[in-house]
Amino acid sequence: MKPKIELFNDHFQNFKRYAIPKAQLVIADIPYNIGNNAYASSPEWYKDGDNKNGESKKANATFFNTDVDFRVAEFMHFCSHMLIKEPKKTGKAPAMIVFCSFQQMQMVVDYGKRYGFNNYYPLVFIKKSSSQVLKANMKIVGACEYAVVLYRDKLPKFNNDGRMVMNWFKWETDNGYPKIHPTQKPIPVLKRLIEIFTDVGDVVIDPCAGSGSTLRSAMELNRSAYGFEIMKDMYKQAKEQMIDHAEISLLSLWGEK
Q1: I need a surface site. Which of 153, 182, 192, 254 has the fewest CB within 10 A?
Q2: Which H/E stretch holds residue 6?
């Protein structure tokens, strides 16, 4: 059966107008709020990646327009409303996964508690290399991504055939998918998380959809997914390159012609 996939060119605060179902899992990559310092340790700050060529258009640029005043309280309010209520049966509770910078992790935990997410555990994703080449003289450079799993009271749904999962994952990439967003999360990583915290037929929501990679991941795993992206150009690319194109190739998997 074909899952329901919808990407809206709108702010997640306007969710009521779309009457979308509540989710088993919310996944979001929130803006880092680092403003115009986004490319500070990346060679992209310079033309052709070489500081001898002078600064590029990305010097003093943000990743996205919302990367200055993203309102975490509004985001948490949305998530608390759009996750399903904790069922009486154990092992079925919902969760949310928030990708963020290391410096934001405690802030995410603190805001989560204000909105009923009383429990959490951190996740670390290990990369094979670092993009912080301009900080190489520091000897220690960033080669990790971070996220926080938040849940209310009951432990969330957890699918791993009784096997233990560490709080670190390999940052597995797949270049077979379109690269649309500068901070786009790899689909193999997202699929692994969705497989753990949801079942086939569950609903996944991404309030900050960006490239649409979360929706694509859910689609390939036969989960329904809904996302919001306020930037029109980003929405258009995600819809055309990440979602619509995939729906055509997946019709046979869903048993449709």
Answers
A1: 153
A2: strand 5-8
